[in-house]
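Researcher: Hi, I'm a grad student and pretty new to this. My advisor asked me to get structures for two proteins we've been looking at. I'm not sure of the right format, so I'll just paste the first sequence and hope you can take it from there.
Model: That works fine. Here's the first sequence with its structure tokens right after it:
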Amino acid sequence: MWVRLVAVLFVAACGPGPATGQSTGVIEGRVLDADSNAPLPRTHVFVVESMHGAVTDSSGRFRLEGVRPGPKRLYVSRVGHERRALALRPAPDRPVTVTVRLDAKVLNSPPITVSAERDEEWYERLDRFRSLFIGRSDLAEDCTLVNPEVLRFDDKWWGRFEAWAEKPVIIENRALGYRLTYFLKEFEEHGSVVRWDGEPLFEPLAPTDSAEAARWRRNRLEAYRGSLRHFLRALIDDRLDEAQFDLYRLPRASAFRHAARADRFPAERDNILEAGPDSTYLLTAHDRLEVVYHGVPERRAYLEWADLRRRTPRDHQTSQIELNEQPLHIDPSGEIVEPYGATLYQYFAFTARMAKRLPREYEPPK
């Protein structure tokens, strides 16, 4: 039985990251009110999917150092103002200087109020959101939703569950050693499809001792191995065999057919991937792609999530990818550029949650 639990993937266009040791750049500037031209202090400014972030000072200034060169997405957010995202390309030889003007936000809904008490229905919705957004992997148990009071939920429409937050959602991940500040724009579950849109900022946590630091290193490697990013980087580098991936084309008519997989065909890298503009790669696949990873066996938590409790865990992980756009742009670090560019099925859908999210700076040990 093919599991129909899926996650529509949103990945912000942040651009490639170079190899360790390469020179880095600087992004600096000011944030001003668009009407009065007054400086805006206490504004969040960060490179999306990274650990490079700052809060503007009293004069609205910020400076981000150590930013890897290449296309980046700079996100600017302040309470009471409209958020903005800028496409930038920092370089090692010259700082990028920007002036960002934010429009005052016109509130069309009542402001969020913090209440010490929540009814039973709200807590049930919170548990549902946490399971869908943070996930149900083993690592999710060590994740704390620090400020759940900023969340609002709506499930009045039949078969649809929505969540939103006026303030950033903060997740402390003691399994990976990061504090994740997520600027949630949209979250929706409709039937078996879950999709979300937002901008994450990572901050490293300080380990309590050397044992915890070692555990974080192990867990980060586990989160990376077999992930969508791991697969796409191996595909770009033409190292699928070395990385223990098998890749197949699966005709859409048989995507959910229970068979011995005689209806799948090997996918040749050169037939689906080609060089694109700005150091990106173009992925084209009119059939669904099936990815089999032999490096790590299935986890029991995956079988629980996929409602396959009676089955014995297999010695490999199977995922499927369906492209929502043709071609799909992939940057060299293994990130998809287009928002909602792909739909993930099976193991990729299970792992594409916040509990296993890694910053773009993460590199597995050689």
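Researcher: Oh nice, that was easy. Here's the second one.
Model: And its structure:
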Amino acid sequence: MIAASLLASPLRGQDSLMVRRRKQADSLLGSWREAQKLADVADSLEQVRATVGADTIAVGGLRIVVNPSPLPWRQAAELAWPVIDSLYGSVAADLPQHPYIFRAVDPDSNVRRTVLHVGVEVPWDLDVRATTTLLLTTVTPPSFDPTLADWLAAALRPTLRPQDERAVVFVQLVTVPSEAVRGCFLGDIARCEDVLQIGDTTGLLGRWYATPGEREALITQAFTDYFARGATAPSMQRCRQHHDDACTALLQSLPPGTLPPPLGGSARILLVREALSAGGRDAYRRLVARPSAPISERLASAAGMDIDSLVGRWRNDVLAARPKPLTLPWWASFVAIGWTAFFGLCALRSSRWRL
């Protein structure tokens, strides 16, 4: 009996400890819920305060709440909505759930303004194009999951000038000192998928930066400060002396996910735009439908085609952004010859050339 009571005492003590811990956890959970309710109330009150006397402008699924000002909000919204709708398709219908609040202010005034914690302050001297761009850059992508955001390294927002993105990616394809990028430029779709980060993620170092020169350049240009001190300093010095084993070891020691891809984020954003353009109005809905699926599968589902075809289409669009060669009219050469002759005669008539 004594032994049994001795064994039972620690068990009762553990039970009472668990009960106390459970009560503490329940108390903390209740406090957190109360704090969340208070925060929601505060946000609601702040939103009401920010929208007092404001106007609501609705164009399509776009809702903006603005104070009276000279800004051309309606014109800008009418220009912005078709661009938003063409990108997000049927999912753009969800945007009215989250209206955008703007407060126009005098940029030259020193008058102290009421501090608001919701909405965006903008100067009231913007023109239509600048106001439209502001609306497009403020739109929050609907159902934008963290996996997609991490892969893109940027938010997927509408743009008035997609041709500028294509031009940027074209310049990257022809100037980035990488054999993988060069292979993509020459038509190797597998290389394109590698540099776009939609293929196999193992052994990326060897595929992205295939030559010793590329690895050394990456170290010296992007990671000099990171590796130049502490235990990695000797390896950094050896890498600078063209020892590829040191360069490779340093790059392999980087934390997962920090090896910079050869192509910038604009290339991946352009690929998503290509998928959404090919897939129709429900393309964006399919893109965000399965956040746990591989990016390549999500893009293929959105585009309604296999990933190789989509990447090939992306590459063709990028190559089509090649700057057009400058063509001169037929008479330009005669004008150049005439001016050359004129300046030549002037030089011969100069006293410096007389004997």
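Researcher: Is there anything I should tell my advisor about the second?
Model: You could mention this: The first strand starts at residue 55 and ends at 59.
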